[in-house]
Protein 1
Amino acid sequence: MSVELASNLGVVPGAEETNNSPLVVRGMTVSYGQKPVVFSVDMTVQEGAMTAIIGPNGAGKSTLLKAALGIVRPLAGHALVFGKSLKHQRHRIAYVPQRASVDWDFPTRVIDVVLMGLYRELGLLRRVRQVHLDKVTACLERVGMVDFADRQIGQLSGGQQQRVFLARALAQGADLYLLDEPFAGVDAATEKAIISVLKGLREEGKTVVAVHHDLSTVHEYFDRVFMINTRKIAEGSVAAAFTSENLDKAYGGRLATGQIDQLALTAS
Ligand SMILES: Nc1ncnc2c1ncn2[C@@H]1O[C@H](COP(=O)(O)OP(=O)(O)OP(=O)(O)O)[C@@H](O)[C@H]1O
Ligand SMILES: [Mg+2]
């Protein structure tokens, strides 16, 4: 039975465990105060696809990811990762948080940041061997940051830091990549480098979900769209979900009508 069908029929959550989607979110409601910032959201992420989470500032995009990852506690709802609860699947997820949310002042070298991605392999003793260093180098190479391995992370530009955190995610060897605004504040070269790494992951059959703000690149970068403004607005292929009607619902008066029509047109 499909998850949609199961939830329509009001089947108990446990029955969804037959669904092996990389990430299934059901009935997620999150509130930091009185008012929910994410309300009763259902999401089903398609395996092997690149999905953009889009919606205006404050729409609950970051909060939805954090709730799915168990970083914030929801008022209601749950998430399943490859059909199982998060605690059994955490190692299969790599998460790159929104940059502004992390304090980079602590002294840590680039190489150590990427090594963190290997925490499972390093084990309790954290003994770093050549094989681990080789992996770190390979991941830094993939994002074009190998020359910066010994630099303090705080001494890198924002775009360079973003590449390093992508390298850490790669080191983890996860199956599901959740990225919160990977292109925010990066230049065109870094954006190209990051998108080509993400497309490479898709070619390997991995699943990528990224919060994305630049509506003009949605159709070029992504296969699917999840549109949110506290509630889910739309979910589906770019062609089906990235429509002027849905954009209007999500962004309200914040986008000019002409702009919306143009964006939806370029998508179709
Ligand atoms: N830790 C927090 N405590 C209180 N309120 C919060 C917290 N984090 C987020 N919020 C509020 O919850 C709402 C949703 O925030 P969230 O960060 O999820 O939005 P977003 O869609 O990611 O926005 P942006 O595009 O600006 O990143 C906002 O109104 C925000 O002010
Ligand atoms: Mg955010």
Note: Residues 148 and 156 are 9 Å apart (CA to CA).
Protein 2
Amino acid sequence: MNKITIREERCKGCAYCVLACKRELIRIDPERINNLGYNPAVFSNGEACTGCALCAEICPEVLIEVFRERGKVALKWQNAE
Ligand code: SF4
Ligand code: SF4
């Protein structure tokens, strides 16, 4: 199963990743506030993630990592630092 992780403690809540995900798997959590004072983005852990990495590419803070499953191998995609 494909999935992403978000470093929520550094998220600034800009919601670019929310707009980027065509599967609507990411949302801004209005119930939580991180140490920076923002409502962070969270992943729904849905099985619909395609591993397209659009969310990771658009994040200006480089907080999203994408894990793609191909057979038994989970590939870790990292945005350029
Ligand atoms: S990798 Fe693609 S499908 Fe998965 S959460 Fe990111 S934008 Fe959505
Ligand atoms: S694009 Fe990055 S900084 Fe903006 S809401 Fe998503 S995870 Fe947070």
Note: The longest strand covers residues 64-70.
Protein 3
Amino acid sequence: MTTNCPTSPEDPRFKELEKIIAENKDIPGSLIQVLHKAQNLFGYLPEEVQVKVSDGLNIPISEVYGVVTFYSLFTMTKKGKCRISVCLGTACYVKGAGDIVAAFKKELGIDIGDTTKDGLFTLDSSRCVGACGMAPVLTINEDVHGLVTKDDVPKLLEKYRGEAGGDKEAVS
Ligand code: FES
């Protein structure tokens, strides 16, 4: 189970968030900066974090929520420990990225944008990641995997399932 879920105001990360807010409180237009740091801290921006930012910066919650939902870099959804992102740029798509996405969906039982119930995997897609020569490409956390086929999906999942939280070595 992941530990990045703020379940109570006693979560020590709220103290850290208070510090971030205090450091930025008097800087005009600091909302995005604070939200960015808050997301780095918690992994996502749940309601209780947004309320804290709203109170701390004295900005209406509607404005905070508006910014969080407007910018795609912010998320209100808890991400899994292993974040899979399949490139759906043109080069990857014509080389079978769609089949890879379908294989992940089938294996994990989730859709794009969703996280498995055990909090281990989040499935996402991305645009060109600049590695078209290795198409089709996907990333899992910081690791880049190229020339992937749909048949590689089960072994990739097995590898990351087994190593969740440990060092990972790219398989291709
Ligand atoms: S289109 Fe996928 S890396 Fe360029």
Note: The longest strand covers residues 82-87.
